[in-house]
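hey so i finally got around to running the thing on that chain from the lab meeting. sorry it took forever, my laptop kept dying and i had to restart like 3 times. anyway pasting the input first so we r on the same page abt which one it is
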Amino acid sequence: MSNIEATRDLPVLIIHTGNPDKVLRGSHGDYAEMLRHAAGLLPQEVQVIKVYHGETMQPASSYRAALITGSPAMVTDREPWSERTADWIREAAAFGLPMFGICYGHQLLADALGGSVDYNPLGRELGTQIVECLPAAVGDPLMTGMPERFPAQLLHAQSVTQLPPGAVALARSDMDPHQLVRLAPFIYSAQFHPEFGCEFMRDHLERYAEDYKKEGLDIPALVQGLGPTPTAGNLVRRFLKVTSRSAARTA
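ok and heres what got predicted. didnt touch it at all, straight out
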């Protein structure tokens, strides 16, 4: 068996960092399941590790890639499980494991690799919003063929406020200059949610409408503005294809 064949036989790690509440989980599944579907992977192709329950990962060499979910937790709370995960991320990055983080995973990757995370000074970013590619996206292997502007599902209060050394922002939104980031070769992260569809977003916004209204957010308008996000929704699949092709070239 060649090295590339052996790599392809390894599972994709899903680092599960939290879940929606019980009602939303009952209707839409948990965040790890949503991410697996967005990645186009079968259950037998992944290993899900619930780090927020104290589960631990194997060494980075045990996986062909790692995906990191979103979470209701905050990176700045410095939960012990999150700090342990950050330690593993640093080891995996040094090993060269391809990784892709979403929302909390995006922020945790940046924090672990030397960046900063805090509450977004412009406030909470919600709904289907436009993401715009930046000049650094030109020629990036993940971004090749993507439109300059595309809609994405946003649901976050904290943001990456400073990129780690060597990281490059590939796309932005009106409220966040770091919507899509390349942290290292084949380590990417997105503040937006490729795994969320309109139905989940609508149910979430309506469930927490009263809380969000207290922040001055127009929930009916945000619900009305929800729409499909096919480009964003395909991003994790693109990532796995790009990293698989790279492994084939270097094998």
